[in-house]
Model the fold of this input.
Amino acid sequence: MSSLQDVCATSIQSKPRSYWLKALIKGFCASLERARTRQLLAQLDDRQLSDLGISHADRIHELDKPSWR
Done:
């Protein structure tokens, strides 16, 4: 029975630290990109929003989102 436990324990491998570091950096970069695009969205006037097909309500909804979404 102990040999079965040994096989199961060795077959389960955690992801390497480099995977988690890359995921953390990727998430941080995505957060910065969302902040940058929301800042640009906040600077658009009504004519520019209309050209993009974005309503004023859509802009307000996007700007009210927390940074992680």
